[in-house]
Amino acid sequence: MKPNLHASNDSDGALNVLITGAAGGMCRGINKRLAVAGHTLLCVDLDLERCQEAVDELRSEGFAAHAFAADVTQQDDVDRLRNDVKETVGEIHALVNAAGILDRKMLLDHDVKSFSKAIDINLVGPFALIRAFAGDFLTANWGRIINVSSIAGTTGYPYPSYAASKAGLSNLTRSLLMDFWGTGITVNSVCPGVVDTPMVIQEVRDQVPTKVPTGRIVDPDEIGALIAFLLTEDARSINGADLVIDGGATQVFRLFDPAKS
Ligand SMILES: NC(=O)c1ccc[n+]([C@@H]2O[C@H](COP(=O)([O-])OP(=O)(O)OC[C@H]3O[C@@H](n4cnc5c(N)ncnc54)[C@H](O)[C@@H]3O)[C@@H](O)[C@H]2O)c1
Q1: Domain locations in the chain?
Q2: Of residues 6 and 142, which shows the higher confidence score?
């Protein structure tokens, strides 16, 4: 049923939160923030070993977390996951779709198979998870769905499978508002810029001082803090948004290097 949520730091607002890609670099920050907020984490990843490591780390600090293996692109895996999660905690109250891949291929290096793989993981996967749990959210008349998109989905980007999949994910987010009209269910996209995870190559890290107005790379913990807020009742009117968290990178277009001017 709908959890009793009153305010951002209300302990009654402890939720069961399912997070995909939970073994990844960004989720290390997201997991910790949500755990500290008192939520129980259902951590899902293709890589069960690393997912279990992440969960063990959380448990060693006294937080509630469970590890599950699933490929978000496989309907059978998603169905099995839904059953396993129900057996473990009952209903989930929030879903964070963070599993994703960045295939650094420009147009001519791609073929249909490689392009489709990115669309499957970054867009079809989140759809499959949302579809699997939407009925439960509707029954409870409450829920939080957060899709981890990217600024690459809001601007042109050299790697088209990534950009197209994330643009699709952001628009999937907006499109679902019709399905949840008049309920306590919100759906939002978080669009990070350059975040300090292994996904980011050194060449991009080196450009941060001249391409990002804050002059710094985003910490995964900051993404976690934003998502933790979106899970609160205080965030109930934030719905269908692309929440950009990029230090201002997409708001500026630099033709010169300020460090050299
Ligand atoms: N790192 C950044 O700078 C950045 C910026 C913007 C957006 N993002 C997005 O944030 C999310 C997390 O990125 P990250 O940096 O932690 O990447 P990461 O590669 O460290 O983590 C991604 C996780 O997703 C899992 N995964 C991949 N395919 C899967 C599948 N089919 N089923 C289940 N799990 C699967 C991987 O095993 C991995 O643990 C991604 O969606 C990414 O596109 C990252």
Answers
A1: 11-246
A2: 142
CA of 98 to the centre of ligand 1 (A): 6
3-state class percentages of the chain: helix first, strand second, coil last, to nearest 5: 50, 15, 35
Choose, from 162, 167, 186, 191, the residue flagged as catalytic.
Answer: 162
E runs forming strands in 115-175: 142-148
CA distance 123 to 4: 31
How far is residue 188's CA from residue 172's CA, in Å, rounded to a whole number?
Answer: 10
Q: Which CATH architecture has domain 11-246?
A: 3-Layer(aba) Sandwich (3.40)
Tell me how many degrees the CA angle 237-41-62 measures, rounded to the nearest 5: 120
Q: Is the CB of 73 under 6 A from ligand 1?
A: yes
What is the tens place of the pLDDT at every residue in 93-136?
Answer: 999 999 999 999 999 999 999 999 999 999 999 999 999 999 99
